[in-house]
Design a protein that fits this description.
Layout (H helix, E strand, L loop, with lengths): L38 E10 L15 H9 L7 H9 L2 E3 L21 H21 L16 H8 E7 L3 H15 L17 H13 L12 E3 L9 H4 L1 H12 L2 H8 L2 H10 L19 H13 L14 H27 L2 H25 L5 E8 L1 H11 L22 E8 L7 H4 E7 L2 E2 L15 H19 L14
Parallel strand pairs: 1-5, 2-4, 3-5
Antiparallel strand pairs: 1-6, 6-7, 7-8
Length: 502
């Protein structure tokens, strides 16, 4: 049975983002209103972890030690820095997640957050502190002088109910700790690398925040803001971890279609060329996610993205000196096709209504409930600021689920050039419009922002004011969840699935 796409095609969107550039990208404004209009009364922020080392070593064994040393020098030594951050922002991992242990700590130095990634995340946190110091509900009548003394983050703690959730990966947990350090900490601009071997003044910073908050509301200095990795069976952030068997079935349904098989087979020659130069792509134990191309395209893309992020040649540690120039040119010619094929594969997954529902609907429905609760509170309690530390595929799925215009047109090149880069943010803001009175759809709108720029949604194309109301947001989620019902319909699929873990 042919399954209906969540949304029809849309107009083109011009992006300066490049999946391989390391930049966080940009979009053009999405609504008729300025992104400074209204008062922000709720913030729901997804971010990808910061810059990391490649997930796996791909270079020939001859150069393995050189590769290992290079990346080892770009990550913190030992756990001292994580321990210091955890003293300030403690981590609570539910035992259902790998018996309370991170999934990604067994292949050091691969898959680890780098010094650069830590600094990126602190900068993103600081940007958010400044934005909501200026636009947040607590800033009414005080927007000009609010940040004059650099205390924006500490003030946020007084007025916002900050909740933090992460997937069970050291790189996502440490990323959000650095984000919180920027959001709630001081204006210190030193790189985290300068803090190696010391305690980053965690206790003094903890006391500083607590004392500031205690001026108006008593607070336990030992319970400021924690990072929670929730019960794996109910966590909304990573469907592949939450229900791997279901996701394997859903992905297989897409991969086994004639369209996917034919198009993915066209990438087989590219995959073979990559394997000649990066034999680690053929190493056992990798998740291939199916298809005749036969390699893990995320790992392939890693080689280009990570080296470009650190200003290194693609051919470094791939061949002898005499071959470097030839191999550099060959690899450089493959970079863009690799990123585009990766984007294409995930596009096919996210055009599947049941698969998209499994990934994107749970976090969006969770946010919808939090938004309704925030509106019902009527400003009597601290406003919600919910932070989700996750992955590129999570952010991409939510953009597909929401119906971002720039991802809709099959004939456009925009989606081919977009991949959420390190430290990318996707924010859903609950905004009360000035002097507004009436029901929820009259008093509040929602703003979707990716890396600081508003994003247009297909569902808003026919609306004159282009504003996303709560009823519009709910309708988008309803349509997404219809994909889940398709997955349960025997007429649409012969695969038996257990949806209880969603």
């Amino acid at each position: 049975n042919k399954r209906k796409r969540p949304y029809p095609g849309a107009t083109r969107w011009v992006s300066s983002a490049s999946a391989s550039s390391g930049n966080r990208g940009s979009t053009r404004p999405s609504t008729s209103r300025s992104d400074d209009d209204g008062i922000v009364e709720g913030v729901f922020l997804f971010h990808r972890h910061g810059d990391r080392t490649p997930a796996r070593r791909l270079v020939p064994d001859t150069y393995a030690e050189h590769e290992n040393v290079f990346w080892t020098e770009r990550i913190p030594k030992g756990a001292s820095l994580y321990d210091s951050l955890s003293d300030l922002f403690p981590t609570d991992i539910h035992f259902s997640n790998n018996d309370g242990k991170f999934f990604d700590t067994r292949r050091a130095p691969y898959g680890f957050l780098t010094w650069k990634g830590m600094d990126q995340m602190r900068s993103v946190g600081r940007e958010c502190a400044l934005r909501y110091a200026r636009l947040g509900h607590q800033a009414i009548g005080n927007k000009d002088n609010y940040c004059a003394d650099g205390a924006a983050g500490r003030e946020l703690l007084k007025h916002w109910d900050i909740q933090v959730f992460s997937t069970c990966y050291l790189r996502t947990v440490k990323s959000v700790q650095c984000f919180l350090h920027g959001l709630l900490g001081t204006d210190d601009q030193r790189s985290y690398e300068e803090f190696q071997g010391c305690d980053i003044k965690a206790q003094s910073l903890r006391d500083e925040i607590a004392l500031e908050a205690a001026r108006e509301r008593p607070i336990d200095p030992n319970d400021l803001v924690g990072v929670y990795v929730r019960d794996r069976s109910i966590d909304t952030l990573n469907a592949f971890d939450r229900n791997p068997d279901l996701m394997k079935d859903l992905v297989s349904e897409v991969v086994n279609t004639d369209h996917f098989q034919k198009h993915d087979a066209l990438a087989k020659p590219l995959a073979l060329k990559l394997c000649d130069l990066l034999p680690g792509l053929l190493a056992p134990g990798q998740k291939l996610f199916g298809g005749p191309s036969g390699i893990n395209w995320i790992h392939a893309a890693d080689h280009f993205i990570c080296r470009r992020s650190h200003g290194r040649p693609y051919s470094e540690f791939c061949a002898g000196t005499n071959d470097d120039r030839r191999i550099e040119e060959a690899l450089a010619s493959m970079r863009r096709p690799v990123i585009q094929h990766l984007a294409w594969r995930f596009r096919q997954w996210y055009k599947s209504a049941p698969l998209l529902a499994a990934i994107a609907a749970p976090p969006l429905r969770e946010i919808e409930g939090q938004i309704r609760q925030a509106i019902d509170n009527g400003g009597e309690r601290r406003a919600p600021m919910v932070i989700y530390s996750c992955h590129d595929v999570t952010i991409l799925s939510i953009l597909y689920g929401l119906g971002a215009e720039f991802l809709e047109d099959d004939d456009s090149n925009d989606w081919k050039c977009f991949w959420p880069s390190y430290a990318s943010t996707l924010i859903i803001e609950l905004v009360r419009m000035k002097e507004a009175k009436g029901d929820v759809d009259d008093t509040h709108i929602l703003r979707i922002i990716v890396n600081g720029k508003p994003v247009r949604l297909v569902a808003m194309q026919k609306k004159l004011d282009k504003d996303l109301r709560l009823s519009d947001f709910s309708a988008i989620i309803d349509m997404l969840e219809e994909g889940e019902r398709l997955a349960d319909d025997p007429a649409c699929s012969s695969v038996k699935r257990d949806m209880s873990g969603w």
